[in-house]
Specification:
It contains four helices and 13 strands. With 218 residues, it is α+β, with helices and mostly antiparallel strands. Helix 1 packs parallel to helix 3 and helix 2 crosses helix 4. The longest helix has 17 residues.
Length: 218
């Protein structure tokens, strides 16, 4: 049991993401909010038909690939199954979580945020969204507020291309003014109408967070 909890914590320590997390206001006016356009561009409308999501979250650091986390998720029932290093846990996110399920859920939220942050723009509450000007193109800035989620106060600056696909993001842990991590969004693939970036690399190439075994079932 202890080994399983340690495994759950490994990659989540790289970046903690949101469950539902004092800058200038938006300088860009949109007829439809850019955040909604970004979510729509990746297939948000199709998500209502998704019955199961399978994926493996992987981390490669300095050429060494860490043990992955395999997930099976039913978004409609909120049943989640995690398999990591030969051990499996199943729980339901709508029910009261025990300590083991809670540890697994923290990892789940982290991994899902890497998988589909564009949809979290539409799903999450407790956040301020703005669109500051950027020399690199369009930007969506997400500032989580209040005390909700596992890591309240975090901020994400997402660069978006002309097709409203996220190309890069900068992660600011709660209260920091400098990004703790910057990664790319690369190698998008279409999985049954849902577009997902499968690789996220740091500028120096020392870290790659990537997904395998992705399957979207409707």
């Amino acid at each position: 049991m202890k080994r399983f909890l340690v495994l759950i914590a490994i990659a989540a320590s790289l970046i903690a993401c949101k469950n539902d997390p004092k800058e200038e206001p938006s300088t860009i006016e949109e007829s439809q909010e850019l955040s909604q356009q970004v979510a729509d561009a990746s297939g948000l409308e199709s998500w209502k038909d998704v019955k199961q999501v399978d994926f493996t979250f992987n981390v490669e650091r300095n050429g060494e690939v860490m043990p992955g986390r395999q997930w099976q998720w039913n978004p409609q029932s909120e049943d989640v199954t995690l398999t990591a290093k030969g051990e499996t846990i199943t729980y339901n996110r709508a029910q009261q979580l025990d300590s083991l399920s809670l540890s697994a859920d923290r990892a789940f939220i982290n991994d899902v945020y890497w998988l589909v942050p564009q949809f979290k723009l539409a799903w999450d509450t407790g956040m301020d969204v703005s669109y500051p000007e950027s020399a690199d193109g369009k930007m969506v800035k997400v500032q989580y507020t209040g005390n909700g989620g596992y890591t309240p106060g975090d901020r994400y600056d997402m660069l978006v291309d002309e097709n409203n696909m996220i190309t890069k993001w900068m992660y600011y842990p709660g209260g920091t003014t400098e990004p703790a991590m910057t990664t790319s969004f690369e190698d998008y693939n279409d999985y049954n109408g849902i577009k997902i970036a499968t690789n996220h690399r740091t500028p120096d190439g020392s870290l790659n967070i990537f997904f395998t075994d992705i399957k979207i079932t409707k």
